[in-house]
User: Which sequence fits this backbone?
């Protein structure tokens, strides 16, 4: 069992003082941070970015770079709002921590005690699931379970997400491994409302945004107002997402994602959040948002996410061991304890990084869907702040992107994914019908002049013709920017369709397109 106090004291007092001194010296060279950001942006095609760097006892360094949208002159400034996606999870854990401080909630409380309608597929898991378990990605659910109910935008409700949990087959034993999910954070947001009597939107605004005077912060994307918000940029292909020229794309999230990934904020707005994190819940003028005990809770790893031999000259970012705490990832970087999280939505990637033992925190917000580029920017800034040896992070990002492109290119043949041998075994009319998955809902396969069409009835942008793609299988061609295409596999028994399974078409598809978890049956 991890000793929480020793987990917060990994560095000696001398190391603390030395680290803080190095950070202050690095921050005095603001031109160096500018050069790092501008060099990475130019080399890796980041249209716009914003950075906030915070250390105790001095004004935050806040800066915007580039443009909000390609082809337009409006610059990114310190008040430009970005969608911070899963960086929102730490806010939810902080909200729950306040209720723990108030004695209204316990981390080990059974979820059933607060949400009696909560139900997993396994009755024992249902009974054992605690509030803590909702936040640490060890439930046994498959990776990204239920994300298709959230992305792209559809008409599912949070009550339907809660009900859907009972239909997901567990991919591993309860508390035996790590698999990231968003759905349980939405459930945790419902639990927050049930215990406090206030919705996620109201609670996080009243208890965090307002007391911290977080300018430009809103709890979900439907509340964004005004023109000063970053556009989204991605590469839509052809032949698959992640390739082709950079272009403006549309957001694909709704208010449903709120506690799992809905916050929009600027770097000016996030600076007070970083300050209160470094202060372990203490406010600058006195008082607290949460106790130091709760800060320890939120930063204590609960689930091992990876382990290995640690950093090498070729990969200095590798951690000896990484874990997931309550809305935060915990690892080591160049001998320092690092508390961090990433956020990714269609067209935007963001990073939050805390080095609490050095008194240092910073965020990087970008308006591009390129995790490799944003990681390069993050580590380059980290190395400057820590006065670490120089490393070619730009080259590493380019090499990783080239490797990913090679993986896809190996499957593309003449410029597109080549269909496997074989085709329909039935007349096309025999595939027509309505099919139902117990957690997602219905799809409709219809006959058209050109062949077959599919309609994901709960996700408006998921409508497409179906093209033969192997024995009794078809592929979609969703509208550009509408997410990842799928392979639709019909199951045939006695010359009749008995069910439909799916998988992503691209091997690099984001895990949120969890087509593989679907199991459709004909609606008779």
Assistant:
């Amino acid at each position: 069992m991890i000793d929480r106090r020793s987990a917060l004291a990994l560095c000696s007092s001398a190391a603390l003082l030395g680290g803080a001194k190095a950070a202050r010296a690095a921050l005095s060279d603001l031109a160096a941070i500018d050069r790092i950001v501008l060099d990475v942006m130019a080399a890796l095609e980041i249209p716009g970015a914003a950075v906030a760097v915070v250390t105790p006892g001095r004004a935050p360094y806040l800066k915007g770079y580039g443009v909000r949208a390609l082809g337009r002159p409006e610059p990114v400034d310190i008040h430009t709002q970005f969608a911070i996606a899963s960086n929102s999870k730490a806010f939810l854990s902080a909200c729950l921590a306040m209720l723990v401080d108030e004695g209204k909630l316990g981390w080990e409380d059974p979820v059933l005690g607060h949400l009696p309608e909560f139900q997993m597929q396994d009755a024992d898991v249902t009974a054992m699931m605690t509030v803590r378990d909702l936040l640490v990605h060890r439930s046994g659910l498959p990776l990204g379970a239920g994300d298709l109910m959230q992305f792209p935008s559809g008409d599912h409700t949070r009550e339907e997400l809660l009900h859907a949990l009972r239909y997901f087959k567990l991919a591993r034993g309860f508390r035996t491994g790590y698999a990231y999910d968003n759905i349980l954070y939405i459930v945790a947001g419902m639990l927050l409302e049930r215990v406090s009597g206030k919705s996620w939107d109201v609670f996080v605004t009243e208890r965090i945004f307002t007391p911290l005077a977080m300018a430009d912060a809103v709890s979900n994307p439907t509340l964004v107002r005004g023109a000063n918000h970053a556009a989204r940029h991605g590469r839509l292909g052809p032949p698959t997402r992640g390739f082709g020229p950079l272009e403006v794309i549309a957001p694909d999230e709704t208010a449903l994602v709120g506690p799992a990934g809905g916050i929009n904020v600027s770097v000016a707005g996030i600076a007070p959040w970083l300050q209160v994190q470094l202060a372990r819940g203490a406010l600058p003028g006195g008082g607290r948002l949460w106790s130091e005990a709760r800060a320890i809770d939120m930063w204590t790893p609960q689930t091992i996410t990876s382990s290995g031999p640690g950093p090498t000259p070729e990969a200095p970012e590798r951690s000896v061991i990484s874990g997931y705490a309550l809305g935060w990832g915990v690892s080591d970087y160049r001998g320092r304890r690092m508390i961090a999280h990433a956020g990714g939505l269609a067209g935007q990637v963001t990073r939050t990084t805390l080095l609490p033992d050095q008194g240092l925190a910073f965020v990087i917000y970008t308006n591009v869907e390129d995790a490799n580029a944003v990681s390069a920017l993050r580590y380059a800034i980290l190395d400057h702040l820590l006065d670490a040896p120089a490393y070619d992070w730009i080259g590493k990002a380019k090499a990783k992107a080239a490797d990913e492109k090679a993986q896809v290119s190996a499957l593309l043949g003449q410029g597109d994914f080549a269909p496997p041998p074989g085709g329909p075994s039935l007349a096309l009319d025999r595939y027509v019908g309505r099919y139902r998955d117990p957690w997602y809902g219905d799809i409709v396969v219809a006959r058209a002049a050109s062949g077959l069409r599919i309609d994901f009835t709960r996700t408006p942008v998921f409508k497409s013709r179906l093209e033969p793609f192997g024995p009794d299988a078809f592929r979609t061609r969703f509208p550009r920017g509408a997410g990842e295409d799928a392979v639709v596999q019909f199951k045939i028994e006695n010359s009749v369709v008995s069910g439909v399974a799916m998988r992503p078409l691209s091997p690099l598809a984001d895990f949120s397109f969890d087509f593989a978890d679907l199991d459709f049956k004909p609606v008779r």
The two ends are 53 Å apart (CA to CA). The chain is about 30% helix and 20% strand. The chain has two domains: 4-87+214-407, 428-522.
